[in-house]
Amino acid sequence: MNRARFQMFTWLLWLALPLMVLRHWQVWDRLPASLAVHFNAANQPNGWMSKTADLRFDLGLLAFLLTIVTLVLYFWHRNAAVTASSWVVLLFFYGFIGVICYVEESVLAFNLYGTKVNAGRVGMAVAALAIGSIVGLIAFTRGRPLPATDLIREEVHTGKTAALVMVLTLIPLLLMAAEMPAMRFVMIILSVTLLAATAMAWDGFHYLFTRHGLEVRTLGLRLKSVPRQQIKNYTVSHCWPWCGYGIRGMGGRIAYVWTHRGVRVDTNEGFVFLGHAQPEKIVHDLDAMMKAAH
C-alpha cells in the first residue's frame, strides 16, 4: 500500500503539464506577441521569445524534468522499500517543480502587468528546499543512537582538497553578492551553505567502531548509526561511478566519501559506503568490532 501511494503521488507530479497549459490558455489573448523571458541582474529584460515558442519551451523543459524525476524515483525504489526518506525526496521534487512553475508564472505576470520577477524569492525557495531536504534525509536515515561506551577505534576520513576548492568557490559568490543587490541575500545563503560544507569536508567523516556497532559523525553531529546485528558483510570496494563527494544516496543505500575508495558495508536495510584512503584499516576495525561483540 505504501509503495502504491508513493507511485500515485509520483505520477501526480505530471499534473504540472496540463496546469501550465491551462494557465497559458487563460491569458493567451492578453499576452503580447513577443514575451520577455530572460532578465539581467538588474531585473531588466534582455531576451525575448514569441508566446508560442515560450509555451513550447516551457512544456518541453517541464516534461524533461518530470521524466528525469520519474525515472530516478522508479529505479531507486524498484528493488527497495519506500521509507520516510523517500517521501522527503518526493517532497523536494514537488517543491522544485513548484519553483519552475512559479518562475513561469512570474514571467507571465511581468509581460501582463509589468510586475518584476523576484529572483531573490526563487533563490530563497531553492535554498530552503535543499537545506530542508538535507536535514530531513539525515534525520530519517541516521537510525537510533548507539550506547556511547566500549569504543574500539575511531577513523577519520577528510576531504581537505575539496574544502580548499570550496573556499576558492566562495570568492566569486561574494563578489556577485557585492555586484548584484537583487541577488545579495541568495548569494549570502549560498555562501553560508558552502562554508558549512567546507567545514564538514575539513573535519571529515568520523567512523566510530564500538562493541555495539558503527557510527558516522561529522562536526560532532551523528549522521548514521549501524547496529552490529544489522551488518551482514563488508568488503573493500570503489564507490559507484556517479557517487561524487560528501554524503551521497538516501534511505538504506548511502555513502560518506571524499574519495572513490572505501569499504562497502552491507546491512539488512541496504548498504553503507565508508570512504577512506586506506580501506584495509576500515576492514581491520570492522573485524575488531565484530570479534569484540562476541
Entry summary:
Helices cover 54% and strands 23% of the residues. The chain is of the alpha+beta class and 294 residues long. A hairpin with a 2-residue loop joins β5 and β6 (221-227).
What is the rounded Rg?
23 Å
How helical, in percent, are the residues?
40-55%
Instruction: Give the total of beta strands.
Output: 11
- Overall average pLDDT: 87
Q: Main sheet, how many strands, which sense, barrel?
A: 5 strands, mixed
Q: Quickly give the structural class.
A: alpha+beta
| Element pattern in H and E | HHEEHHHEHHEEEEEEEEH
Adjacency order of strands in the biggest sheet: 7-10-11-9-8
Report the β-strand fraction as a percent range. 15-25%
**Ranges with pLDDT <50 over ≥5 residues?**
none
Q: Tell me the overall shape.
A: elongated
